[in-house]
Amino acid sequence: MLAKSSTEIVRQQNSTLVLSALRRHGPLSHTDLSDRTGLSSATVSAITAELERHQVIERQEQAAPAGRGRPRVSFSQRRDCGYMAAIRISSDQLEFSLVDYGGTLIDRFDEARQTAQSDGATFAQQLRQSIERLAARSGLSLSRIMVVSISSKGLVAQAEPRLLWSPVFGELEVDFNSIRGGALQAAVILSNETRLVAAALARVVERHAEAAGGLAPGALCALSLGHGIGLGIARRDSLGEYQVSAPDFGHMLHLVDGGLCRCGSKGCIEATAGFYGILRTAFDVPGDTIPARFIPLIEMEKLAANARRGDRKAQFAFRQAGLALGQGLGRMQSLNEKMPVYITGPGVRFYDLMEKGLIEGMGQSRAIRRDGLPEIDIILDETALVFAGHLDLALAHMDRNAAATGQLADG
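RESULT FIELD:
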C-alpha cells in the first residue's frame, strides 16, 4: 500500500514537471521535455501518453525541413479542456476575464462597482451573476470553469478565499467561497493584488535573465502607487523558486499621530502617500478628516499640473508623499537583502514629482547609505502584470489538478 502511494506521488510530481515545462516554455518536443525536466525518455513518454489520453495536452506535427524524414512532434496544452475566470476588484470597477487552459484570453468586460455594499454575501452573489454572464457570452457551461481567481487590495486570509479588510470594503469581510454552487464547482483563489504584481515581475525578470545567460536577483519588490499603497516581495528559495508575500506596507506607521488613514489608524504611509493623502497635504485638510475611499484620477492630474507649473503647496504634497515612501522602503531594505524596486500603479504618472523625496527618504536608512540605492524601475502597465499574475497562479493550480487526477474535467 505504501509502495503504491509513493509511486503515485512520484507520478504526480513528474506530471507536474512536464506541465510546468510546457507552461513556461511553450510547445516542446519529447526530447525537449526530457531535457527541461531531467526525466528519462521513457517517463516522458508515459506521462505525455496519459495526459494526451485524458485530453489535457495535444500533439502537433510539423513537417521536417525539405520534406525529408519524420515530422517534428511537439506537445502543448489542450486549450479547450478547461477554463479560468479572473476577477480584479478595484476602487471603482470590476474586471472579468475568461481564459482557456492554454492561457489565451477569450473574453473580458468591466462593470462599475457599486459604491455601497450591504454585506459580503450580497457582493459575492453579484460576482456569481457576473461569472454566469461571462460563461454565457462564450457559450460555456459553468462546469467548464475550473478556477476563479480574484484579486483585491487589502488583507487576505491565508488558508481560504476570504477578504478580511480592504480599502474598497473597509471592515466588511467577504467570503468568496460562497460564489460556488450548482454547476460552478471551481476552486476559488483570492490574492492581494500587489502580490500578483510581484509574482508576475519575478517571472519576467527570471525569463530575461535566462535569455541573457545570467542570474535573476535573489529578491525583488513591487511598489504600487495609487488610491492606496501596496507592496509585494518575491524571494528565491533554496530550490530556486520565487516565494511571494505582500506585507501591509501602506499601513506601516510613518508619522506618530499623523493623518487619519482609511484603515482607521493615524500616520500610516498611505495617509501621506496615497492619493487622498497627497490631496489632504496640498489643501491643508485637517488630518482627522475621514479619507475618501476613491479619488478621481482627473483630480490628481490637476494637482500634478499645478505642481509642474511651480505651485509650491502642490510640489510639497508630492514631495512629502515621496519622502514617506522612501523612508518605508529604507526600513524594508534594512530588514531584507538589497533588492531592486519596481514602481507601478496609476500613481507612477506622478513619480517625477515624488522622486526627489523618495530618494531622500531612502537615503535616511543606514543600510541604504552603506550598500547604495537599489535599482529602481518604473513599470507603466500594472493592469497587465495583475492579469499575468492571475494566469500564473490559476493555470498552475489547473496543472497540479491535472497531474493529480489525470484530467481537468469530465468529457
